[in-house]
Amino acid sequence: MSSETGTGALTETPAATAVFTAVLTEGPLSRVSLARRLGLSSAAVTKAARPLIEMGYLRELAATERTGPGAGRPASPLAVQADREFFVGVKITADELIGVVCDLCTEVRASAHRPLSDPSPGAVLAEVALLVEELLGGPGGFRERTRRLGIAVSGDVDRDGGLVRYSPFLRWRNVPLRERAAEATGLAVTVENDVKALTTAEHWFGEGVGAESFALVTVGTGIGCGLVVNGRLVSGSHGVAGEIGHIGVDANGPDCHCGGRGCVEAIAGTHALVRRSRECTGRAGLTLDEAVALARGGDEDVRAVFARGGTAIGMGIAAVANLVGPARIVVSGEGLAAYDLLGEHIRAGFERQAFGAAVECPLSIRPLPFEQWARGAAAVSIQSLVAL
Amino acid sequence: MSSETGTGALTETPAATAVFTAVLTEGPLSRVSLARRLGLSSAAVTKAARPLIEMGYLRELAATERTGPGAGRPASPLAVQADREFFVGVKITADELIGVVCDLCTEVRASAHRPLSDPSPGAVLAEVALLVEELLGGPGGFRERTRRLGIAVSGDVDRDGGLVRYSPFLRWRNVPLRERAAEATGLAVTVENDVKALTTAEHWFGEGVGAESFALVTVGTGIGCGLVVNGRLVSGSHGVAGEIGHIGVDANGPDCHCGGRGCVEAIAGTHALVRRSRECTGRAGLTLDEAVALARGGDEDVRAVFARGGTAIGMGIAAVANLVGPARIVVSGEGLAAYDLLGEHIRAGFERQAFGAAVECPLSIRPLPFEQWARGAAAVSIQSLVAL
């Protein structure tokens, strides 16, 4: 067991990890129901929980039941002590940092934003340090019980190595973000791909709790996908997973910044939609908002750009359904501001390309405030308490 | 615990399932190492193993170590009793049945083939009954200890419901194969998609043992993919998974029998390769072998057909790598007879479309005798011993 003031994982055995995770995500739970669902003996549950109670991460609620022949042993449900520790989560976008402080149950206790004018790693890290200072030095009094920081970045992130291998929108390659952010902030840092972080938040603390499989597709500048399969987030053996934006859906389609061709993102990402709208209108300075307005006003050419984009997204979602068969798929992201232009084509592309019963997979759409991305980063930091 | 002569699962608790599965796939294993790897107490392992030993499915090897303070308790490794029960596996193709008898360790003890002239369910079931009779009535004396039959079919199979929802090559829709095959043979039947069955055999008894993630891609008349993610076969919440053949890789490509467009299979499946070779040569009766011969002889148009097919397969494999990031991908199947024509394009399509570090995922190619498909069906039947 790591020392109470260290920043390693709190759990050292599979049983302790299973117990802590279950209480964290689905608690309060009695020792009896923990034992049943985890296939452990009651003694094993008690042994696993004891140090977590001693360290103050779990607490016993009032006894509500007594079990079996050992009527002298109360079966008090175990719950998380939400304010035992706080966690900073930061989402880095190309032009802004969004930060939150969350408690152990990912409830957001404070939030702050900082604009970014320079996306170079050094400049971003200086701003991250200022953002953390603003969040922890504020009136909430979080500093004393905050030791961990989660950072979410789009692109190819090696979580275990703490490395941003490639983030196209920041133009970063091989940035050792974990180490540099730890130096800049004094906190223990976990780095994760932003979509995976958001999916972790949904899986541990949101709609995905208890789901054996689900997918979260984010539509915007990038088009990403977080996947939970067989009850766990898919991380990818080589550090890449959920890259729905780089599935090739058009063998003769446009080249993508990734080196691929006809990628979903090269057809349906914000930059692609804007570029093609400029081409077909001849208006070189056209913005996304203007393109959306033209399409809504009935410009058939611009409408076709969004239609093609929606179809590409739907084909990518069908690939997810055909390959891994999630129980359901949530589609979200800032790109859904144009949902009226994309939605029917997303659905049609999905329905055309979903194989057999895969078409029964429900697609649901819900808004996603940007702060939720930062909460996802905090969730990843909370996860670092547990040896996965 | 089910009765010894019943055909339900042998294991009723998560612990029993975990112990039996671990010994079946990775045994012999001592109780100590079982406890360690499964996060169970030694007492829980002993309790879980006892009925399996009593029923003769597990046996204790000679004690090789004694552990801990309780030096009076031997820690004999547990092993599977391979000939405790035998299992029939049958693969149904459009023109042939392939059958095997396997022991509990999926060693093939007998095999037989029967040609199929009529792919209707009734005719196929009559032939399945004859095949089973031939296998079990033979000199091996298997009948007495054989109670289970696994059947592997291509297409959309609902394993839990025992239903073949759609098998394009057999032209079956909604055939309750489990029930009808049980009536025809008197055995307890498990029905599974053929590629999933093969992947199960690899995962439980082959190269995939212990792998957290891998993919098996089969190239032939159909193009399929079995996926193991987070240590378990992906079954798909709606019964569909691994349908790499129906990922759309060409938005303007040919229509597919599934209703999709530009599916990998509609470009690279055997039928598609033959059809397009006929189109570009003007030879209406051209066979696959003749098309391969023309391409090998340097016919540029036919070579281009195979090149386009290989590229489509590579793009599909890249989609698998980008989405789930397997540790490695095995490519196999009867279509690889034309590997010299497809291979470089499979690889090039994969490398172009794999995102970032996903390109590091090794692709390996190995032959796959048709009998292995039937062994996969038997493996699925063995799996039905275990409550998954």
Give descriptors for this structure.
homodimer, 388 residues, alpha/beta, Arc Repressor Mutant, subunit A, Nucleotidyltransferase, domain 5, 5-stranded mixed beta sheet
Write up what this structure looks like.
2 copies of one chain form a homodimer. The first copy, chain A, has helices spanning 14-26, 31-38, 42-54, 121-136, 177-185, 194-205, 264-268, 270-281, 288-296, 300-324, 339-353, 371-383; strands at 58-60, 78-80, 86-92, 96-102, 108-115, 146-153, 156-158, 163-167, 172-175, 188-193, 214-219, 223-229, 232-233, 329-332, 363-365. The first copy, chain A, folds into 3 domains: 14-80, Arc Repressor Mutant, subunit A; 85-201 and 372-383, ATPase, nucleotide binding domain (Nucleotidyltransferase, domain 5), CATH 3.30.420.40; 210-366, Nucleotidyltransferase, domain 5. Chain A has a 5-stranded mixed beta sheet with strand order 5-4-3-6-10. In chain A, strands 13-12-11-14-15 form a 5-stranded mixed beta sheet, sandwiched between helices. A 3-stranded antiparallel beta sheet of chain A has the order 7-8-9, with no helix packed on it. By secondary structure, chain A is α/β, with parallel strands linked by helices. The two termini of chain A are 14 Å apart. In chain A, a hairpin with a 3-residue loop joins strand 3 and strand 4. Chain A is built from 12 helices and 15 strands. Chain A is globular and about 70 Å long. The longest helix of chain A is centred in the last third of the chain and has 25 residues, at 300-324. At the A-B interface, helix 1, strand 12 and helix 10 of A face helix 1, strand 12 and helix 10 of B.
